[in-house]
Write a structure and sequence with these properties.
Distance between the termini: 37 Å
Number of strands: 10
Structural class: mainly beta
Shape: globular
CATH architecture: Beta Barrel
CATH topology: Porin
Number of domains: 1
Low-confidence stretches: none
CATH class: Mainly Beta
Strand content: over 45%
Mean pLDDT: 83
Helix content: 10-25%
Oligomer: single chain
Length: 151
Amino acid sequence: MKIKLFFICLMAAMFISKNADAQELGVRFGNVTGGDYAIDAVFSTAQFSRIHADLSFSSEIVGIDVLWDFIYRPIGEEAINWYVGAGPYLGLGNDFALGVAGEIGLEYRFVEIPLAVGLDWRPAFRIVDETTFGAEGFGFNIRYVFNQGSN
């Protein structure tokens, strides 16, 4: 049932993001707010910044992360980015969670195919329902790049 719900949400997110001109849409595997996998989307806000959003699932909670990233490219290299950012996260389910997450990551955007892969780390500071800090938020992203020629 969880897999069906995940794919239904993935298809809905692809439809919504295509109509909203999302730049990238895919999945994230690893520790996220709501479980071990998430629908992962990137929306450009400027040449060197973006919104990095995740919708994650588990049997107990649905998580939403919305992070504002700043992108850094090595001189002369368009395919490799590293980024750092922060933003709020929300967990809804058996347990309520509200907090702030940071992010630092490295990604590679393939030139010949519309695909981006990346690794990131997301330490998180939970503020509401209890106050905790977690540093175990490592993840692997794989995303389809829309309109690759225009980015």
